[in-house]
Amino acid sequence: MITNIYGQPVYTEQDLFDLCMTQPNFNFNSAILVGKKIAFDPALELNNIPTLIEELTDLPLTVSEFDKVFRDHWMMPDEYKKLDIAKYVLDQCTHPEEIQRAGKELLIYQKRDLFPLLQYMKYLVDLMRENKIIWGVGRGSSVSSFVLFLIGIHRINSLHYDLDIEEFLK
After folding, report:
1. How far does the chain reach from its first CA to its final CA, in angstroms?
2. For residue 116, which of 30, 76, 77, 125 sits 20 to 30 Å off, Cα-Cα?
3. Among residues 59, 75, 91, which one ends one of the domains?
């Protein structure tokens, strides 16, 4: 197994065969096959990422260029890609002050082109709940985001504790 210039593991057919024989529980979700350049993750196939990987393997991209390409291709079901995240967040609000705070934060997220990230975070929370995976109450500056609280990323109501969103944006 080798890693490409982006630090991703890249396997030959022989590497994959050896892994199957020696480590039957190996997670093939991130395996990329050298030569044929086939991605083994079904989510990658659904999002047309194998072609993207094939196109990127021979291109001299900087890390930031590589990051931008994959940032534009979130691996989540279409229902989450099509989710109007702003409407979802605002629908979670029960008081005018919550709507005002959520609206302020949503404008910040929109300005920074982070709606796909919020959609993915909603998908991640739903996936963890569905599989009964426990995650923490909240950590670091992310607890100052009321939008993340409404999505379910953490359980600290930043509006109740008067936490400033600017703490999260530092």
Report:
1. 38
2. 30
3. 75
At position 155, the amino acid (one-letter code) is: R
Q: CA 33, 34, 37, 39: dihedral to nearest 10 degrees? A: 20
Q: Same structural domain for residues 92 and 137?
A: yes
Closest CA to 92 of 82, 79, 105: 105
Give me the number of domains the chain comprises: 2
On whether both 84 and 165 belong to a single domain, the answer is yes
* 125 and 157 inside one domain: yes
- Burial of 119-135, coded b for 16+ CB within 10 Å and e otherwise, reads bbbbbbbbeeeeeeeee
Q: Tens of pLDDT along 66-88? A: 677 666 677 788 899 999 999 99
Per-residue tokens: 115 = 């709606």
Let me know the angle formed at the C-alpha of 36 by 30 and 38, rounded to the nearest 5 degrees: 30
Query: Which pTM value belongs to this model?
Result: 0.63
Distance in angstroms (rounded) separating the CA atoms of residues 156 and 163? 10
Decide if pLDDT at 27 tops 70. no
Domain with 37 in it = 2-75
